[in-house]
Amino acid sequence: MTYLHIDNLTKRFGNLTAVQDVSFSVDEGEFVTVVGPSGCGKTTTLRMIAGLEEPTSGTIRIDGSDITSLPAYRRDIGVVFQDYALFPHKTVFENIAFGLKMRGEDEQTQREAVDEMLEIIDLEGYEDTYPHECSGGEQQRVAVARALAFDPDLVLMDEPLSNLDKKLRQSMRTELKRIQAETGVTTIYVTHNQTEALSMGDDIAVLNDGQLQQFDDPKRVYREPEAPFVADFLGQSSRVDGVLETPSRVDLGDGNSVAISERDGFTPGDEVAVFLRNELVSIATEQPSTGNVFEGIVTELDYQGGEVNYFVDVPSLDISVQVSTVVSQTDSFLEAGMDVWMQIDPSDVIYTRIDDQSRTEVSPAEAAVEQ
Fold first, then answer.
1. Which residues form the signal peptide (predicted)?
2. Start-end of CATH 2.40.50.140 domains in the chain
């Protein structure tokens, strides 16, 4: 059942359109991630839902009620900010109880709600602790508890893990999902990090240049992107453009082609962008007998401990393909200058239709955002 409904939401700052005609619906209890590069409009969208920015046009409804014109203080929405925004002079108890106190709840209600939140976030005994005495992860959990304590209709999170180191950030993803599942609150989570968006969201909204590129479950968005930007931004891949020759083959020009799996909505003659995901391409010194096979030359390798990334020039496609492989302690490595063969199964080839805005290759700069 639709709980939050965003319809044609638009925000302009003078001549700049920050968000343009964004529409999507969220079911009650869902955890939805909103992802995109810096400046794509994701935080502006969040701020309009929270009531901190007034939309130029469009509507926002929660449980059927139009809240577009309601001031922020009249919306039962909890917000977790990027810097947590905890009150440094207040204890953990006072921070978590703040929303309840502002709503006129009595001390007994505040105590019961805070105790429940401390148990949920696994910080019992921290009531009299001050924020500066807490670690980054503990501060983050206190900020989440404050947003949940007054039983809001909706919780909005604006890149709450961006200030944590990589290892802590990974553990906090699981923690946030656990807390959200335990409370059942509908949650919108903004991030620039593709891994967070894919791993945490029940559904994922991909934004670029203020426009919604795709809204769907993470697996479908990753495997069946609806725009070249989506395919390029989510994950690491190499792109080559072509024309759909048959429903199961793309002509890449100069006598080259790639076999693909058929998808609804495509017809021969369509211009398509083909993406070879790094982790789905295999590499060997002997020519494989099945699948799409391309010959290349290793130009460099990037060793990352448990994984090595090979960069391979493929003359027939006139591109450099990156291949990511997991390595063990005893594996030997390919070396620069070696002739190799790469293989990818037709079912693993990602492709999407090219529109006028994506006729030239999407810049990989955004896709280099930290994974």
1. none
2. 236-357
Q: What are the distances in angstroms from CA 50 to CA 60, 62, 68, 349?
A: 10, 11, 10, 39
For 137-190, how does the pLDDT look when each residue is reduced to its tens digit (9 = 90+)?
899 899 999 999 999 999 999 998 887 888 888 888 998 999 999 999 999 999
Contact 179, 149 (CB under 8 A): no
pLDDT tens for residues 83-96? 888 999 999 999 99
Token pair listed for 341? 């063969």
Residue with structure tokens 């990602």? 350
Residue 298 exposed, middle or buried by CB count within 10 Å (0-12, 13-18, 19+): buried
Residue type at 281 in one-letter notation:
V
Residues near 239 by beta carbon (within 8 Å), at least 6 away in sequence: 228, 231, 232, 273, 274, 275, 276, 319, 361, 362
b (16+ CB within 10 A) / e for 249-271: bbbbeeeebbebeeeeebeeeee
Please provide the size of the chain in residues: 371
Q: How far apart, in Å, are the Cα atoms of 44 and each of 10, 15, 34, 70, 254?
A: 10, 16, 11, 17, 45
Cite the residue boundaries of each domain of the chain with CATH code 3.40.50.300: 2-219
Going by C-beta distance under 8 Å and a sequence separation of 6 or more, which residues neighbour residue 204? 32, 33, 34, 35, 197, 198, 214, 215, 216, 217, 218, 221
| Burial class, 352, CB count within 10 angstroms (exposed 0-12 / middle 13-18 / buried 19+) | buried
CATH code for the part of the protein at 236-357: 2.40.50.140
What stretches of 70-182 adopt beta strand conformation (E)? Answer: 77-80, 154-158
Q: How far is CA 174 from CA 1, 138, 178, 221, 263, in A?
A: 25, 14, 6, 21, 33
